[in-house]
Amino acid sequence: MPHSQAREICSRVTANIENVMRGQAKSIRLLMAGFASGGHVLLEDVPGTGKTTLAKALALSVDLDFSRIQFTPDLLPSDILGVSVFDQKENAFNFHKGPIFTNILLADEINRSSPRTQSALLEAMAESQVSIDGQLRRLENVFFVIATQNPVETSGTYPLPEAQMDRFSLQFSLGYVSPEVEVSIMSDQGAGHPLEQLGPCVGMEDVLTLRSQVKQVAISEELKRYIVDLVGATRREEGILMGASPRASLALMKVSQALALIDNQSFVSPDHIQEVAVSVIAHRMVMDPQARFSGQTTKAVVENILKRVPVPA
Amino acid sequence: MKTPRLFLGATLLFWGWQTNMPIIGAVMAVVIEASIFLPWRWTFTAKDLNKAADICAILFMALLIYRFSQDASSQTLLDLLQQIPIPFFPLLACQYYGVAGGIDSSALFYSARQKRKKDPEAPRKVVDIGLPFALACVLSASAANARTTFFMGFLVLSVWALWKTRPRRYRRSLWIPLILLAAGAGYAAQNGLHTLQGYVEQAFLDWYGDSLETKEDAYRTFTHLGDMGRLKLSHRIVMRILSKPGERVPALLRSASYNAYFSGNWTARDADFYPSPYDNAKDLWFFGDAPDSSRETVISMFLKDGEGLLSLPAGTYEIQGLKSRTLERNHYGAVVVDFAPRLAVFKVRYGDGPDLLKPPGPEDMRIPLEIASLISSQVASLPLEGETDLEKVRIIQEYFLDHFKYTLDLDGKGGRDAALARFLLDSKKGHCEFFAAATALFLRNAGIPARYATGYAVIEPGPDGQWLVRARHAHAWTLAYVEGRWRDVDSTPSIWAEEEKRGESFFQGVFDAFSNLWWRISLKRLQGDGTGRSLTDYLLWGLIPLAAFLVWRLYRKERVEKDKKSGEESPMPDLQGGDSEFYPIEEMLNAQGYSRRQGENLNQWALRLGSHAPGRLKVDVLREIIHLHYRYRFDPAGLDENDRRRLAALAKEWLESYTRGMDARKEKDHDQNFGNDLQP
């Protein structure tokens, strides 16, 4: 039964990651939902909370190509996409693939590079393809970007443009773990980093099954309407310059479906939608500067909308 | 919250009763409650309701402007507060006779109306104004200030409204004592506040009463004795007197009298005020019994802020038609009102009945030491030996009339203390305060108790048989106790009136004409039916054409059959799984007061309830039901036969166990273990 098989794949990966990431069950759940739904994930948190470790743990748990780009201010688009080099022997240009031609791409500290470089990812993330030297090149079948950024340190950074933000299905932060968990993390790393012992537990085939099964999860018309109501409400909200796009509705549906699958449910229930609504919607909205300076956040706006819009029951 | 049936009617009746407009209240109540029995409703559009709201606002503004143009006093504000439900009633009627069951927010709020203009396609947002209106009625009724009956009525209405919305999970035996406790505390608190206010007012008087300086004061009067320069007098008309043709008007209207003289000022000792009885039916304030022969006069006077001293003829025993909240007198003939109209028009009856003033005491014979020798030497020069008291008064009065001159120019030399001595010895001229003070002291020296009185002289005939009293006619004279009663003794040369008229402006005639016009309107209102027409009557007459037009418009308006199910929620039959057995559970929990918040999903709700009342609600079973319910509702595949039956069975069992638990709780106070014996 493919559904239970997919669910099995999910729990295997989750268990594998949990070997490394302590006390972050909720973040792992969200990451898995994003991965299974075929979206991309943006992790935003202060340094040292395990963003990169989480990303690497996922990459190591699945037997897929993995590459990592450390974003710096002098990084160029060609450093990501690849470059054509003239071969004097053959008297022709040879294309050298960049790190983007992989299955899982970890874009570390993505806001440190210039907007020009950041936008090199745009086409890749939305359409799984890149145009280089006027030539269209398809990316791998499974292409998953997991980016990290630090919201506190702003000097020498370029905030991601709205179009780029919209490409990410989910954005969430990890947060600090409890003191007990922090102690156990210290004990674990006494011998060596647990990442070193981590091996893949699922393969490409499994990932494809997982993703195709997510699409099979049923969602009723009424809940689709609920998603549209939630996203639509962001466009009418006070203090919001730009509400969430229809792409947000689409992402919310897909991530909810993935979450339902993780919960071993063949249909989406309202709880799933509510659980991920903030992570899916909030980062796509642009606040009015005045509202932002008065302490209003997009997260609070979405939470407010969730409380207000009647949930189907 | 929707108001319970008949609640608004009862509130309107209560309002009518409290504000003394029972008929208007009853009509409004009947209009509202009759809507239950009518089989049709009007299809008001948002635009219609906007118009209705505008009409209400205009009515209210008109009422406001009309009232304040008539009389801008604090009493008007209270009256207006009492009438608030009247102008806004049409809006309430629109709610009860319209299909929408409420009023569009765009009709009530300007911002909502602007939003609607921008986006006319947006769905109508309907607000139930029943409860706000009921609250406004209660507030309005409270302005009538009938303390005990108001509290009882307010309590009954509150309990009624709260009873309907109480969370059913609490037992009645708990709810009723709690509400009674709250009621008792409320009553105690309002009584306490009232008492506290009394204490504070008293304490304020005790501490600062002496330093409060007011223009006209029943306790003391500040004279211009010893002042310098020419006395400035206003020519404004402050009172009008109207007597029956051929009948004499009182020459002097007394405001207050004082018995103690010290350093140029007169004060009233032991001048406690006590309220006068009021006859509601005849609209009469009583001072004393009617004498054999009495006279009647109509006085209209301006009262600053609706409070102050009345100026009345000597021997006044009753006042009719004075719309004042309180009226108090003291033993020296001062009458003070509060919460009266700014232009008070009333009838005064007076005559030579039994004296209502305090009989003479030692204070009425006292002469200050510093002036006593001067007075006695002057009185000694008068031929008073062997004369009757009446004759003595006449001799002293004539002494002043003959030997002293009237002037408004004050030289102020020697200051306040020496002013009277200079008047008697040097200048031999002064204004009425000098004459009155000196006469009083002369009379006392001659063995006749005397007091100093202030008020107005009625000397200027006006148009149409009225007498005009201007501010400059303010006068002071002496009261002498002769042959067992107090008599007015005026020793100021009568030229004073001419003297004071000299400063009159060229335009005074124009001012008077306007003043006359205004006064005439006020008087007409008073004489209309004796007690004065109330504003609402006028408004109602003015409203007839408007109402007729509205009725005609409404008559032609489309009506639809009343929605039989209005108020009952239909259980979403068109949705998948709309007949789920979970809904009765939700309904039951809502009735118990465990209502689900708007954006709260079922699992969150169940967990929240579980943390409120652990054990009682059997959250685990509830969550299983919710899971099946979710599948039934949101899984396009739905439930198979077995699961469908299981959902029904589980829900039934849960409901039964819950109701059993409630019954058990009603019987026993607390049964901690009751949740356990219901496990399947």
Count the beta strands of chain A: 11
Tally of DSSP helical segments of chain B: 21
Strand order of the largest sheet of chain B: 11-12-16-19-13-6-25-24
Helix content of chain A: 40-55%
- Annotated CATH topology of the largest domain in chain A: Rossmann fold
Q: What value does the Rg of chain B take, in angstroms?
A: 38 Å
Strand order across the largest sheet of chain A = 2-5-8-1-9
Biggest sheet layout of chain A: 5 strands, parallel
Full CATH superfamily name of the largest domain in chain A? P-loop containing nucleotide triphosphate hydrolases
Give the second-level CATH assignment, the architecture of the largest domain in chain A: 3-Layer(aba) Sandwich
Uncertain ranges of chain B: 209-215, 528-532, 565-573, 669-680
Shape of chain A: globular
Pattern of helices and strands of chain A:
HHEHEHEEEHHEEEHEHHHEHHEHH
Percent strand of chain A equals 15-25%
Q: Keywords, please?
A:
heterodimer, A: 313 residues, alpha/beta, Rossmann fold, Helicase, Ruva Protein, domain 3, 2 domains, 5-stranded parallel beta sheet, two-stranded antiparallel sheet, 14 helices, globular, B: 680 residues, alpha+beta, 4 domains, 8-stranded antiparallel beta sheet, 5-stranded antiparallel beta sheet, 21 helices, 47% helix
Question: Can you walk me through this structure?
Answer:
The complex is a heterodimer of chains A (313) and B (680). Chain A has 313 residues and is of the alpha/beta class. Chain A folds into 2 domains: 1-184 and 204-215, Rossmann fold; 217-313, Magnesium chelatase subunit I, C-Terminal domain (Helicase, Ruva Protein, domain 3, Orthogonal Bundle). Chain A is built from 14 helices and 11 strands. Chain A has a 5-stranded parallel sheet with strand order 2-5-8-1-9. In chain A, strands 3-4 form a two-stranded antiparallel sheet. In chain A, α1 (2-20) crosses α3 (51-61), α9 packs across α11 and α12 (270-281) runs antiparallel to α14 (298-308). Chain A is globular, with a radius of gyration of 20 Å. Chain B is an alpha+beta fold and 680 residues long. Chain B folds into 4 domains: 7-165 and 543-561, no CATH class; 170-208; 218-531, no CATH class; 582-678, no CATH class. Chain B is built from 21 helices and 28 strands. In chain B, the strands form 8 sheets. An 8-stranded antiparallel sheet of chain B has the order 11-12-16-19-13-6-25-24, with helices on one face. In chain B, a hairpin with a 4-residue loop joins β24 and β25 (466-470). In chain B, α1 (7-18) packs parallel to α8 (130-142) and α12 (389-403) runs antiparallel to α14. The longest helix of chain B has 37 residues, at 172-208. Chain B is elongated. The chains are: A alpha/beta (313), B alpha+beta (680). Chain A binds chain B through residues 218-220, 222-223, 266-271, 274, 305-313, and chain B through 575-576, 586, 596-604, 630-631, 633-637. Chain A: One of its GO terms (molecular function) is ATP hydrolysis activity. Chain A: InterPro entries: AAA+_ATPase (IPR003593), ATPase_AAA-3 (IPR011703), CbbQ/NirQ/NorQ/GpvN (IPR050764), ChlI/MoxR_AAA_lid (IPR041628), P-loop_NTPase (IPR027417). Chain A: Residues 37-178 form the AAA+ ATPase domain. Chain A: This is MoxR-like ATPase. Chain B: Keywords: Membrane, Transmembrane, Transmembrane helix. Chain B: Pfam families: Transglut_core (PF01841).
